[in-house]
Amino acid sequence: MTIKKIRILILEDEGIQAMGLEETLEKHGYEVALIADNGKEALEFISHEPVDLALLDIHIKGDMDGIETAWKMKDVTSIPIIYLTAYMDNETVRRAEETAPAAYLTKPYRELNLINSIEIALQNANK
Hints:
Layout: E1 7-11, H1 15-27, E2 31-36, H2 39-46, E3 53-56, H3 66-76, E4 81-85, H4 90-97, E5 103-106, H5 111-125
Parallel strand pairs: 1-2, 1-3, 3-4, 4-5
Helix pairs in contact: 2-3
């Protein structure tokens, strides 16, 4: 019997950040389902591929930011969303809070904080 790996979507427009995240997640036994640099690509993917959690940067490529992408994701799926961003200004945080994220982590992130946030988000999603 094979154990199903948790599939995580990464929405991050900085390639080095995305690769570092992928490496961290795989080291902890997660599967990176997709690395996207824009909301349109992420939304197309989750509309036909199973994903267990999404890590979203807020300032990304394309005509919608990570928060707008999160709103559209909620129309398609109920997966937990964790923001991973360098932006902490009040307006950005307020907008992000309205999407009811599982967590809001700032860059540079601590690996343990990221993994703990993912685990808590997944546990809460399965209640």
